[in-house]
């Protein structure tokens, strides 16, 4: 259940951020949502195999990989730009931080 909730929160927040940044076509938002479902579920499933002692470094490395993967998807769909990379990075920082906050309060 936690995995599904984390994915839903990520999809809602990141898709809303892209909408606010001007990506308003249904097709564009569907690409953002699908990219986030794929990367979020993959990341969260992979973190289950990481030993506790190396968890922080591994999670940060995986988060960086997620940013790169999502940006490559978005670049293919929307065209590449520094602004798009910054938006992708900011969206992932936001949802990572939100996830930490929700874990701290026992929501996730």
Structural class: mainly alpha
Total domain count: 1
Mean pLDDT score: 95
From the N-terminal CA to the C-terminal CA, the straight-line distance is: 9 Å
Sheet with most strands: none
What are the segments in which pLDDT stays under 50 over at least 5 consecutive residues? none
Order of helices and strands: HHHH
Cα gyration radius (Å): 14 Å
Percentage of helical residues?
over 70%
Strand content: under 5%
3D shape: globular
The beta-strand count equals 0
Number of helices: 4
Structure overview:
It is built from four helices and no strands. With 108 residues, the chain is mainly alpha-helical. It has one domain (2-104). Helix 1 (2-20) runs antiparallel to helix 2 and helix 1 packs antiparallel against helix 4. The N and C termini lie close together (9 Å). The mean pLDDT is 95.
């Amino acid at each position: 259940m936690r995995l599904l909730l984390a994915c839903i929160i990520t999809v809602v927040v990141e898709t809303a951020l892209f909408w606010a940044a001007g990506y308003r076509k249904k097709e564009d938002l569907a690409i953002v949502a699908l990219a986030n479902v794929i990367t979020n579920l993959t990341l969260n499933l992979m973190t289950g195999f990481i030993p506790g002692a190396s968890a922080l470094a591994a999670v940060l490395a995986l988060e960086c990989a997620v940013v790169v993967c999502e940006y490559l998807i978005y670049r293919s769909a929307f065209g590449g730009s520094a602004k798009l990379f910054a938006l992708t990075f900011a969206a992932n920082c936001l949802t990572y931080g939100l996830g930490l906050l929700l874990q701290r309060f026992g929501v996730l």
